[in-house]
Design brief:
The protein is mostly helical. Helix content is 21%, strand content 4%. It has a two-stranded antiparallel sheet with strand order 1-2.
Length: 138
C-alpha cells in the first residue's frame, strides 16, 4: 500500500482532484461491511464520525479503506460520511455490497467492484457472510 500525489497513476485520463490518493497492489481481501469504518460490525453515526475524524482531525486511518468508502466510488472523502448519514437519517440509498440487505440487517463479504482500496482486516466469524448465491441469510 502506498500514497501518492502523482497525477499519472490512474491511466490515460489521469487524476485531476489534486488530492493524495492511496494505492494498493492486488492482494487477498477479507470480508467487510461497506460503511462500517470503525469495524464494529454495525453501521451507525460513529462510522461517519470515524471517517471525518480521520479526514480532518488526524485520527487513525480505517482498518479497511474499502469499508470507509461508503458510496463505493473508489475514493474516501467527505461524500462518504454524508452518504452514510443520508442512509441512516434521511432514507438515502442502502450501501452497495457487501451490505445489500434490508436497512436493519447487513452482511459481510468481499468487494465485488474491485476498486483496489485496501482492507487489512477480516471480520470473519464476527459477521454474517453472504451465501453461495449472494444472499444475506439474516
Amino acid at each position: 500500500v502506498y500514497e501518492s500525489l502523482a497525477t499519472n497513476l490512474l491511466g490515460p485520463q489521469g487524476d485531476m482532484n489534486n488530492q493524495q490518493d492511496i494505492f494498493q497492489s492486488p492482494s487477498p481481501q477479507g470480508p467487510f461491511i461497506r460503511g462500517d469504518a470503525n469495524l464494529d460490525v454495525q453501521i451507525n453515526l460513529s462510522d461517519s464520525v470515524y471517517i471525518l475524524n480521520w479526514l480532518f482531525q488526524g485520527g487513525p486511518p480505517p482498518g479497511c479503506y474499502d469499508a470507509a468508502d461508503a458510496n463505493d466510488n473508489g475514493v474516501i472523502d467527505i461524500n462518504d460520511p454524508d452518504y452514510l448519514n443520508k442512509f441512516l437519517f434521511q432514507g438515502g440509498p442502502i450501501p452497495k455490497c457487501p451490505y445489500c440487505c434490508a436497512p436493519t440487517a447487513s452482511c459481510c463479504g468481499k468487494d465485488p467492484t474491485g476498486d483496489g482500496l485496501p482492507c487489512g482486516v477480516n471480520l470473519g466469524g464476527s459477521c454474517t457472510p453472504f451465501d453461495a448465491q449472494g444472499n444475506c441469510s439474516l
